Amino acid sequence: MIDQSSIKVIFLFFLSWFISFQLVAQPKFPQEMDYDSLLSLAKQQQKPMFLIIHQRNEQFSPFNTSISQKTKDILSEQFTSGMVRLKSDSIDHPLHKTYRLTTPIYLFTDQKGYPLLRHNKQINEEETLVKLIDSANTIAEGETMGKLIQQYQKGIRNRLLLRNLLQQYQAFDKYTDQHVLNDYVSQLTVQELNNFETVVFLLSCAPVYNSKTYQLAYTNRKMVDSLYATLPLPKRQEINNRIIQRTFRDALDKKDYTLSQNLGYFVGRTWQSHYLRAQMGQSYYPMEHRRLFRDTSAYIQMARNYYNTFYYRIAPDSLAKLDFANNQQIAIPRRGQPLHLDSAENSLFLQWMEGNRKRYKERQAQSLNYGANQLLNFIDFKKDDNPDVLFDAIRWLQKSIELRPNRGQSHHILAKALYRVGFYAEAEAEQQRAVELYKPQKHYYKQMRDVLKQMQDRSW
Question: How many helices (H) and strands (E) would you count in the chain?
């Protein structure tokens, strides 16, 4: 006979199993969907949309809290909801072509996809989501971007409408439609183009670099120079970043490599007082253009020069010292000449560096990892003609590990590079280290173990 205690144990086991199964079986909320399908469903259901856009892995959880069934039902009743996972290199995806994305973002739109409300921080409390739902419904009753676009498409071009529409592009970090901006500028007088506030607004709208609108904003160059000299640094950075990102988006849309080169020159000039940042900025966008369009030979050559010059050969403290001098408006000598700080300045730098060294080391390690991984992705391993490229990647990764020894990703990428050059024992050792470091993350831990097994079997 089975005694009562055994029955109780068996019952508890099956109860635990059933609960676990139910939790695992529950679909993600909201479900992952293709953006075009989500947009089509919204039009079919005649509902506005709530979408979560991210570039994380498939294990990404959009809420750091539980969401009650009541709130889920409200969303289901009022919105067509879905989660859209983007690849960072999918440059032709409509969301990449529409928004400057720092993901994850939580976006409420009308049923045509025009934004109502954008939230850029991960949601940690259910109350936050409830408030966003209420705010989106309130905004939908007023003057929305979709309603302004509808009037614009009907041919309405009054200045108030155009200005309100341009402000909406800024509010949602949406790439400004240059036709709308051009229509607005065409109504301005020469006197208005000499007005400080007008020019700040135009530049904040992100005209494409060297376009007609950009040049008109620079009608009074002395005034623009004065503008940049008096605006707070965060505002200047915001203006320049919007122009840079909008111009690069234009270069991608038009497959215009020359525009990406011109953008590099523009970025370099924004760092006139800091030669190293200027060179980094000037080199980056032409290289990134080659990468995104898979121009293999050109990209590999440019990437080797870029990461060797700016991340492998330069110590984090050296870059930080130049940044500190630039921030303190201390004159930086030309490249090749040492930067000298007096005793008071050096003391301030050492104090500042104590709080910033970790960030600089992390940034350099991430950049070296990324550069090495891109080389591995671009090399044709069927051809035995890339040993120098592979050894560049290996050197970068070794330096990255010196900077941040306990990053599983660094050891994993190094293992891949070592395996490709036939250093199998070394590759297995690095991959084993990656397995150990990824142990707290079950999903990646399994992936790392699978790769290690394949390396051991020489089947990877």
Answer: 22, 4
The answer to whether residues 130 and 124 touch, using CB atoms and an 8 Å cutoff, is no
CA angle 145-39-175, nearest 5°?
40
Q: What pLDDT is attached to residue 225?
A: 86
**Residue 211: partners with Cβ closer than 8 Å, 6 or more residues away:** 178
Q: Where are the domains of the chain?
A: 35-142, 143-254
Three state DSSP letters for 208-271: CCCCHHHHHHCCCHHHHHHHHHHCCHHHHHHHHHHHHHHHHHHHHHCCCHHHHHHHHHHHHHHC
CA distances from 81 to 59, 75, 156, 285 (A): 18, 7, 32, 35
Strands, E assignment, 105-175: 105-109, 115-119
> Looking at the DSSP assignment, which residues form a beta bridge with residue 54?
85
Instruction: Provide CB contacts within 8 A for 278, sequence distance 6+.
Output: 267, 268, 269, 270, 271, 272
CATH topology of domain 35-142: Glutaredoxin (3.40.30)
The secondary structure of 425-443 as a DSSP string is: HHHHHHHHHHHHHTTTSHH
| CB-based contact 371:306 (threshold 8 Å) | yes
Residues 6+ apart with CB under 8 A from 428: 415, 452, 455, 456
Q: What's at 204, amino acid-wise?
A: S
Q: Which amino acid type is present at position 441?
A: Q
Q: What is the largest CA-CA distance in the chain?
A: 99
- pTM summary value: 0.89
Query: Residue 72: which residues within 8 A CB-CB, separation 6 or more?
Result: 29
Quick one: pLDDT at residue 304? Answer: 97
Q: What angle do CA 106, 111, 117 make, to 5 degrees?
A: 30
Nearest alpha carbon to residue 417 among 401, 403, 404: 401
pLDDT the model gives residue 58: 79
Q: Which two tokens stand for residue 79?
A: 């919105």
How would you classify the pairing of strands 105-109 and 80-85?
unpaired
Tell me what pLDDT residue 6 has.
55
pLDDT value of position 88? 85
By three-state DSSP, how is residue 203 classified?
A: helix
Interatomic CA distance for residues 93 and 124, integer angstroms: 28
pLDDT along the chain (460 residues), means of 10: 52 46 54 94 96 88 92 95 92 95 92 96 94 97 97 97 97 96 95 92 96 92 86 92 97 98 95 92 97 96 97 95 94 87 95 96 97 91 71 97 96 96 96 96 93 95
